[in-house]
Queue: 3 jobs
Job 1
Amino acid sequence: MSKILDVNYEGEFAYHIYIEKTFDGLKGAVSELRISDRRALIVTDKNVAPLYLDKVKDILSECFCFVDEIILTPGEENKNTDSIAHIYERAIQDNFDRNDFFVALGGGVVGDMTGFAAATYMRGIRFIQIPTTLLSQVDSSIGGKTGVDFRAYKNMVGAFHMPSLVYSSVTTLKSLDEIQYASGMGEVIKHSLIKDKDYFGFLTDKLEGLKDRDMDVLIETVYRSNVIKKEVVEKDPKEKGERQLLNFGHTLGHAIEKCSDFSYSHGQCVAFGCLAAMHISDVTTEEENKAVCELMKAVGLQTTLKPMDNQTILAATRKDKKMDKGHVRFILLHSLGNAYIDSNVSDDSMLEALEYISK
């Protein structure tokens, strides 16, 4: 069982998303780009390299005329311009030109940095996403958002730059620790809350398969999340309107992430933000609220935030890139599976929601 999605950009085909069990289809997918005379620089990190670098490099060496790699230090704290400089330096040393490729092999941090380096190296070269975490497979590898953090402000510097190919091998999800896996589930659940109530039902029904990391269940989960994200991105590639719906849970989530000094995973912070946004929306039933919390807990997510300075979290929302003329753009729900954009959420409402999820 495998899945393939076509993603369009401004009305024209842009790239394929391959969702496979293993890396066996990678050579065929990459070969379709017709790049036998081109070079590739694999960007990965010290956690992923021992697991998948040799295998992926061997496959890509059959597709490209030259393949090199750079292994970065993992972690959100290293998602900065210093790391980007290392990518530039290696590409320059290898005489890469505009027709060559960067390849992101890893999670969201590696993908965001590789994409940003590709967007800015020689004013833009192509790149391939090979996401290895659930978070990156269902979210960050799709849609062309790239960037780095700036002085603890998440993704403050970046560019929209579409990949040439996304290849997700769900077998990599077997190697994730519980925290990383749960982090990805935070984004998975978010997708169901904003766009597809039936998808939420699927996640609930397939809970045991999700907990066991069943390959067929994971392929269907990644696929359904990818369908939601790709359809939103196709309508609004530069985040001028509907794409903002994907930020459900992120306004307070990003602020919690920053104010906790990134002690929580990204997906965990999104989960907290989703629960806060549901409380502000005040449209879901008690039964629905309970079902969301139970699903989150079952996949390893926390539903209660440790005590923090809520005023500090509130202040952090003012420095988020989602600000609109001095107002915080908030994503709320009309109902489960139906989200909308609101710029009138008050400070009191956000503080009340933070208190609610801190009980």
Job 2
Amino acid sequence: MKKLALLALALVPILLFAQPATEPKAGTYAIGISKMVSHPALDAIEQGIMDYLDTTDIKATFDLQNCNAEIGTAIAIAQKFKSDKKDLVIGIATPPAQALAQVITDKPVVFGAITDPLAAGLVANYNRSEPTNIAGISDLNPVELQLETFFSITKLKRLGMIYTSNEANGVAMMELARDICKAKGIEFVAAAVSNSSEVKMAAQSIIGRIDGMYIAIDNTVVSAIAGVSDVCAKAGIPLFNTDTTSSENIDFLMSWGFNYYTVGVETGKVVERILKGENPKDVGAIFFDDPTQFELWFNLDVAKKLGITIDERLISSAAVLFKDGKRVERP
């Protein structure tokens, strides 16, 4: 039922209303934040939002809620925010943002870390021509470049991926990776999960049929990344985790993605623009296109164990290296 409920929510078109610009006020804004689940990346977004707004002249109180990957809870949180008459609400990850957008139509809804806001039904188009009360930040990664780099390092022929079948971000990333693999002549082996308790078992189900594992921007899977790392390490399979925030204590080979605290800061900037009077329609969906906003990490200890040599040019471009059990920050 949970899977069907989320699918139905994702497929119902978001109703678009002519949302006037928020009138700035002298008092304190009541802001509600609903996040998908607690894990390092989403926690960093939440913190980045609050830290950034703390540097502005905006006074705000925050109601922090965690739906624990339950769509029913996400809807209940949205309904609570509506009844509490929040001045602005923020959805971190797709299901909470979808729930907020469905329930709250008379106040601004800001999304953070939505891979494809259009596919998620959060924006009608990217041209900002339709009236809407919704705006925010996408965390779409340069997937083709990332995978090409992973392929060049590992020389793999079969790529494995675990994705959440009831999360729009997870499905979108799976389809993109599948199409890239097809174009590159790489066999693609996917395993679907519906919750974090299934992730390690999904990794075990495909580990014997792959040469490398790819974990994309998928909150349910990332929340259980330690289990994937354990399965890959025992099988001698290189792991590419796009969430650098959760890569600190796992046996990854390559990690390349956002610093999610920065995503939170950028989401906070969207909130500031709207609370200072800008119309959400004029803000729209914001995509990162600056390479410096992405970080490339390598674990040279894992590379050595797997007998993989990483080109010195790639190593020199990395922001973080792990070597001899230590983390090394690159200038």
Job 3
Amino acid sequence: MPHHFIRKLGRYAPLSPDDEETVRRLAHETAWVDPNRDLLIDGAESREVCVVLDGWACAYKQLEDGRRQIIGFVMPGDACGAAAVFPDVVNYSVGTLTAVRAARIPGRALLATAETHPRILRAFWLDRLAVSAIQREWTASFGLYTARGRIAHLLCEIVTRLRAVGLADEDGCLLPLTQEDLGEAVGISTVHVNRTLQDLRASGLIALKRQQLVVPDFAALRAVAQFDGAYLRPVRVRDDHDRPAGIEPLTGSVLGSVLSS
């Protein structure tokens, strides 16, 4: 069941019980994918949205010599890929880091649903904007932070994102990432990652054991990371009757006309 996906969309728009049931129907066909497999391939045509329901994946770019840069983590409740309203060709790959249970939603089905359930489309569209906000934060992190700051910032972001879908508590969360994964995400070597994690541990900011991240004092880690988190707080869309006069609701036809103009 796409509980995490529904919970995430509900942070952006007030989904009705009928909306939630519609999302369940959209994401009802699921399959488990083994670790180290691609869900999306850079350059391939795609007219569907892939939703991760369980497990972790990553969006990445890879050079011909094998070097890889992780450009985003895809966690339970996250969607990735293209649909009929987006470019048909994806310019990045998405690979599984753990076993992943994923649902694939055809773009046509998403657009058809948008005509009768506009709140779902609004929530989905705002979620796409949130992904862009995360990407901008990562870009800024590369230019502004030290390795210690980058990793601390990334850990704060992961905990905050997982809390939003009920997968992290006040003490921490599951972190099924290797030091190599972290290095490919923040742009430093595995040796440097190891040294930085040891520093964070020695400072009492984190503990890592058997893929479990413990954060004894989130405020202290946040201070080291200079982590604001405002970019992760959703702007919730109100119902139609609360919308100012002259503002047209966002539906599939409206969105399609905007993108084609």
